[in-house]
Amino acid sequence: MVSRSAAMTAAVGAGCLAFAGLLGWSEFSNWKTEIARVETSLRQTAESIVQHADDVVQMSRLPLGALITEIRDEQSHPAMPSKIGILMRQQMKSAPALNTLSYVDAQGKLVATSNTSPPNTDFADRDYFNRHKNSSFPLPIVGKPIKSRFSNDWVVPVTQKVTFNGGEFGGVVISTIRVGHFVDFFRRFKVGTEGSFLLIRGDGVVLARGPIEEKLLGTNISAHELFSHYLKAAPVGSYNYISPLDGTARIGAYSQSSATGLVALAAASREEVFAKWLESARIRWLYTALLMFAAFAALAVWRHVAKKREQSEALLATREAEFRLLAESSSDVIATFDEGGVREYVSPSAADILGIAPENLVGKSVFAGLDDQAAAIVRDVTAKIQAGSQHEKFVLKHVKPTGEVIWLETALSKLPSRWGEGSRAVAISRDITRQKTVEEELSCLAGTDELTGLANRRTFNARFETMVEEAKTNRSSLSLLMVDADRFKLFNDTYGHAAGDECLRQIADVIRKCVTRPTDVACRYGGEEIAVLLANMDEPGALSVAEKIRRMIRILAIPHSANAPACVTVSIGVATASAASAALNAQSLFTAADAALYKAKKGGRNQVAIGVLPFPAQERVEASVSVSGR
To answer: Is 362:339 a contact under the CB 8 Å cutoff?
Structure first.
C-alpha cells in the first residue's frame, strides 16, 4: 500500500512538472505569437509607407512634364520666367505633398520657382544638375536628400532634364518633397516610443528616417543585410537586427515597391514589445502560481488519503458507467480514442447521425474512410492535442452510406491518462447541417443588394481583386463596365424615391439579362451606379455588352422628363485590361473605367465610352472613344 502511495505521489509530482513545462511551452508559444503579430503589423506599416511614398513620388513627377512643355514653348519669350512661375503655382495647388517646383537653366541659374528665392541662386553645384547635364537619360530621377536653399529643410529632389529642339541641354526642372512629410506619415502608426522607419532608394541610398537622423540621410546602405540577403529572397518580409545608430535590438519588417523600387523598413524595439507582452502575461503567471500551489497542497492531502484508494477507484468506475449512460442517452455521437487514434467506444447515436452502426466503428482508426482534405484536418487537430492542447474544435463533411451529405462539428478533448496508459481523447460530434445551410444563406444575403438583387459593393470588391489575379495568372483579358443612370437625382426629385427604386430594379433586370455568364459579376456599386466585371472578355466583346445594356434600357422608355430623350438612359464607361497591359491591377482598371464614364457623361450622356490603361515606359495615359447611342 505504501509503495502505491509513493507511486501516486511521484506521478502527481511528475504531472505538476509536466504542467509547468506545458505552461512554459505555452508562454513561449504566446511570445512567438506576439512576435508574429508584431511582424505582421510592421509588414503592413512598411507596405503602407512604401505605397504612400510611391504615390508621392508619382505625384511629384507629374508636374515636371507640363513644365518642360511650357519651357520649350516659351523658350525665347522674355516673359517666360513669369509664365512658368504661374504654371508652377497652379501645379502646387493640385499636389499638396510637394514642397517646391523650380526650373534651373543650362548654366545652373534659377529661372523660376514656386517658392520665394534668394537673388542669383546658383544650382550648378548640385549633383542632380551635373548628372542631367552629362547624361542623356530623359525620365525623372529621385535624387539623394539635400538641404533646401529656400527653407534649409531636408528635402528629396525629383528632377528631369530639359532638352530643347535639336538636343540642346536646357537645364533641369525640380520638384521637392520634405523628408519631414514621410516622418509625419510614419507617426500615424503605433510602433512604440522607440520605433523607427527608413525609406530607401532601390540602390541603397537612404531618403528618409524617422525619427529624423540627418547624418544617415543620403548614405548608401546597400551592403546592409537588408539588401545583401533579405531583399534578394523576397520583396516583403521581416527580420531582427541591432540598430547601428543606437544599439537598440529591433524587430523589423520591410517592403519593396515593384513600381519604383523604393524600400520601406519599419521597426519596433524588441524590449518595448517584450515589456508590453510581459504586462499581459503577469496575470496568467499569478493564476498559474496559485494553481501550482493548490496542486502541491493537494499532493500533500493525497498522501493522507492513500488508504481510500479502493474507494476512489470504485468511484472512477462509477463515473465511467455514468459516462456511458450519458453517452448512450445523448443525441450527439460520443466516442473515445486511444493514443493511436483507434476508437475504443462509440455511442449508439452513430447509427442515426453517421448512418453506421457503432460496433462497425469500434477498433477502427479515426482516419479510416476520410478523404485527403478531411484527413489533413484531423491529423492537424490530433497533432495539437498530442502537443499539449486540451481542447480543439473542427468541422468536417461526412457522406453517409446512403450518399446523403451532412456536416459535423466535433469537439475533441484530451482525457486524463490512467495509470500505465497513454494519452486518450473523447470526441463529441453533432450534426450542424441545418446551421451551416443557414450560415451559407446569410452569407449570400450579406453579399446581395436588397433593392436590385445584384451583388453588393462588398462582394464586388472581393471578386474584383480575385478576378484581377486570375487574369494575371491566366494571361487573359478582364473588362469593367461602370453603368450610371443619367440625371437620376432629377428623376428622384421629379417622380419620388419609390419610382427611383423601381427604375433601378428595372435597370438591374436588364443588366441581369445581358450579363449571363457564371464567371461575370454585376453589382450595385453605389446609388444609381452599377459595376459589371466581365472575365476573359476583350474590348470589342465588352463594348458589345455595354451597347446592348444601353440600348435595352433605352427601349424600356421609362419616362424621365428632365432627361433629353424624355426617358431614362444610362452612360457606360468601359475599360479592358489585356495580358499585354502593364498596369493590370484593380485600381488602374477602375480608374480607367471611371474616367471613361466621366467622358461619356461629358460627351452628352446616353452613350458608351472606352478608357485606356497605361502601358510600359509611359506615364499614365487615358483615352476614350465614344459610341453614340441610337
So the answer is: no
Cell digits for 95? 499636389
C-alpha–C-alpha distance, residues 266 and 189, integer Å: 10
The C-alpha torsion from 26 through 30 and 36 to 40, rounded to 10°, is 140
CB atoms inside a 10 Å sphere around CB 520? 19
Q: Using an 8 Å Cβ cutoff, are 55 and 201 in contact? A: no
**H-state helical runs in 124-201:** 127-133, 179-186
Cell numbers at residue 624, please?
476614350
Q: What's the rounded mean pLDDT across residues 24-50? A: 88
Residues in the chain: 630
Tell me the angle at which helices 80-93 and 2-73 cross, rounded to the nearest 10 degrees: 150
Residue 44 to residue 266: CA distance in whole angstroms: 9
CA 168/CA 106 separation, integer angstroms: 9
**608 and 600 in contact (C-beta within 8 Å)?**
yes
Please state, in angstroms and rounded to a whole number, the distance separating the CA atoms of residues 625 and 628. Answer: 10
557 pLDDT more than 80 = yes
Between residues 570 and 14, the one the model is more confident about: 570
SS3 per-residue string spanning 140-151: CEECCCEECCCC
Q: Is 46 left (phi over 0), alpha (psi -120 to 50) or beta?
A: alpha
pLDDT at 1 over 50: no
Instruction: Say how many C-beta atoms besides its own lie within 10 A of residue 376's C-beta.
Output: 11
Residues 397 and 410: their CA atoms lie apart, in Å, by 11
**pLDDT tens string 384-425:** 877 777 788 878 777 778 877 787 888 888 776 654 456 678
Give all domains of the chain, ordered by start, each with its CATH number.
Answer: 38-297 (3.30.450.20), 330-438 (3.30.450.20), 447-628 (3.30.70.270)
| pLDDT single digits (tens) 222-254 | 889 999 899 999 999 999 988 887 788 999 999
